[in-house]
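Board notes (copied after class):
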Amino acid sequence: MNNLLKGKVAVVTGGTRGIGYAIVKKYLEAGAITVLCGSREETAMKALEKIKAEMPEAQVDAIWPNLSDRSEVSAAFEGIKEKYGSLDILANNAGISQNTPLFDYKDEDFDKILNLNIKALYACSRAAAQIMKEQGGGVIINTSSIVSFNGQGTGCGYPTSKFAVNGLTKSLSRELGPYKIRVNAVAPGVTRTDMVAVLPDEMIQPIIKNIPMGRMAEPEDIANAFLFLASDLASYISGAILPVAGAVVI
């Protein structure tokens, strides 16, 4: 335990697997009381049990509100404040991606991406910011993507949502700065999540070939950025979009 976040209370959306799960573990290792947020009670409780088995001394909890429902999110976050005394860090990590070509896109698929990647992030940020304003400060960190800088070849909905994440991050950093609330984003490159890990080697190698550092990111690499930005080491950093992509340019 490094105590970088000792005494802090953190919420991590999309915290049941992949990058989110790595963030939860990193925050716990740093001494924070950490609440992982899942899309369903079943997945949230499964992740909670796994964390407790791996880190029996850690103070960890779980919630599963509908992130697109602002009243439900507000109630869940207020419950965390009442239970633990504060809400100091919000890691907005929940999101989905797609590579669907434009002419194959269904309206409902495009809406689904925007609802989770943008509207849910807005709902969570607003609920957390209200608590942070009242308590005198806090930190919000959003998951963007390396494709938020130059887009991607297909699947326009995903980079569109991540461009919006960057805009929301920069705007909120300016609006919430007077309340001592810092707002930043992490922009991961290709990361070895469950979805990537099952890809055959002939698909993985061309991806790695285009990464100057010669490997894809591990979830822990991304979580380290979330830890730094949540800690007092980044006390004067706000409005930043931090690429964690091994120097790759897409």
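Comment from the instructor: The longest strand covers residues 181-188. The chain has a mean pLDDT of 95.
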